[in-house]
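Review session, final week

We close the course with one last complete record, chosen because it touches almost every idea we covered. It is Biotin--protein ligase, a protein from Pygoscelis adeliae with 712 residues. Go through it on your own first, then we will talk.
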Amino acid sequence: LPAVHLQESTLKELVQVAPSVKEQSVSSTQMDEVTPAATSGTTIKSGLGVAESAGQGEEEKSKLEKESEHEDESSSLSDKETGAGEHHHLHLSSCHECLQLENSTIESVRFASAENIPELSDDCNSKLEEKNDDCLARGIKRVSLAGKPPNVLIYLGSETAKVEFEQVKSILQECIDAGSYTIYQLHEEQVLKAPWIDNALLLIIATEEPISEENHKQFMKFLSKGGKILGFSSSFTFDGIQIKRKNKLKKTVHELVVSKMDSTEIKLNLLLSGYIFEEVMKEDTSKVKTLSQLNNADKDTVIVHLTYGDSGGEAVLTQAHLELDINSMDVQTEEDFNLLKISNTKRYEVLKEILISLGLSCELSEIPMLTPIYLLSSDEEIHLAFLKWLEGNVGAEGLRASSNVSLKFVSSCESKMEITPSLMPVITEMGSFSSEHFSLKTYQQNLHTKKLGKILLFTEVTTTTMNLLDGLMFELPEEMGLIAIAVQQTQGKGRGGNVWLSPVGCALSTLHITVPLHSNLGQRIPFIQHLVSLAVVESVRSIPGYKDIDLRVKWPNDIYYSDLMKLGGVLVNSTLIETTFHILIGFGFNVNNSNPTICINDLITKFNKEEGTKLKALTADCLIARTVTVLERLIDIFQEKGPNGVLPRYYKYWVHSGKQVRLHSEEGPIAWIVGVDDYGFLQVHEEGKGVESVHPDGNSFDMLRNLIVPKH
């Protein structure tokens, strides 16, 4: 293989975006060379992308002014016919228009992305809420260290506003430590009667309607006793500040500059309410602090911090919609959708910053408990054959030992089963299985393979699916294709050994495949990650009606929305035993977890709005099965025809058509991306120099700065 690789890019400018989150990184890729001379039992890691860390460190476009002109930028390549033995290059002539386009700057946000913000169950709150709407009246006492019970109240004015309450509550639950606070709605009739003033830590005012004088007095009394108020696009103000209508801003998406506690600034795009804040000249204006202004000529103030009284009362008031996600707004244009989605992680960052400044804890809540694994199969016959194989291949008490995770096979779920990261029970009786997040029937209906993905190890919560199969995969008969699927992972494997907590709504799995060394794919192992990325994209875009959902592949191993935001990634570990590669493919992509980045169902909702269609939302069980089905077919084609059999399909969906990059350094010569060579490495064309291949190593090809450093 060509020994050319990319130098790891420096990311100094990103180091301090999110000091409060411990485990973050900007994705990087390593692809060690795979040589056929590997001896028996050698482990080779190839194409370590972001395993199942769908959305991690997603790269973002910061200049979208030309977006409308760019819409066709990554459409399919010309179907230029080539001779039978000729390699499918991406000819520059086939995308001449692309080359004229401005090469947009792309930055990466080193912040809590999909893996850092789990979607927390709201059981603890909804139970209380349904049964105890009058519990505020009885004055719940759960006293925190500050002396205030940790209740968060949401006031939505006179409307019953059930939907709005759920919207605000759900974003709060994703930001604050949900185990430490209880969230209630403060109804209109409770404002003056219930003893809530002494029983709440934070009051959120999220209504645009005017606030009556009596209610305003109550809110000020709450502040005077050390309470905290957060106003979301509300008319509530006091002391040195007033609001002013500015109609031309209403329902527009605008860039804000927010000042953080550490004196750094963050820029993001948000939907505006149409009002701004103005200071009223009084003797003491030191109590008003501007936290955010619009990046416009008037530098309009849209977020302010105010203090009140001597007991620590304070308020943060905002006229930009921090509380709304993309699906709660009426977003008119694709440009607005892109601006808001790209700012989504920053929206969380700003919201957490505000909540922390008001005294709430935004530490991640406890890691969920590990759950037992269920042995499932898409095929009754194979299931019985596997159980028969198991009888002769487990030790005492059903134990199958492994250096990573030992599996203990048991027939049914026992209440006192021990589950640790190194020892996990596997329940073999399928009858007792049910999950609200995974339907075996849906998986079966969408899996059409000869071998792959037939035997499932499914669990709700595990450390990482990458560790579950290695105790079985080397000895299991080939026709019993193994796959591990989880709803959540507590130690998902990302690039550079990064660990993250993956959210509910992300499709997470590890698939086992075998590839003969002396075969087309066996000689080109780096191609596997490209085939898997393509299979994920095709799993969606091959469904009738879904072909225009803008899901794409980014070399070497990422899944993208357009060329803007990352939705998923692939991790490949290969072990050569004699003349067979045993390959574990970890893949993860965001299906239904809209926050804090973006997911496939967001793209479907957006498409339905734009096209007036009624495409159904998709589920992880369906898409994992479809991905495995497509992958098996792609591997068969590759084994028969080599790279040329699959590259036209790969190019159809990739984001790099005719993109311009710099070689060696930011001042280096300009080159154009041409395609992928026979070994899966990126080919670039430098004027007057011809085409050369580059090998991904370190930080994949650096979309941050459109930089590639070939090593000669």
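Two points worth writing down before the exam:
Residues 620-641 form the longest helix (22 residues).
The chain has three domains: 151-358, 373-653, 659-710.
Good luck, everyone.
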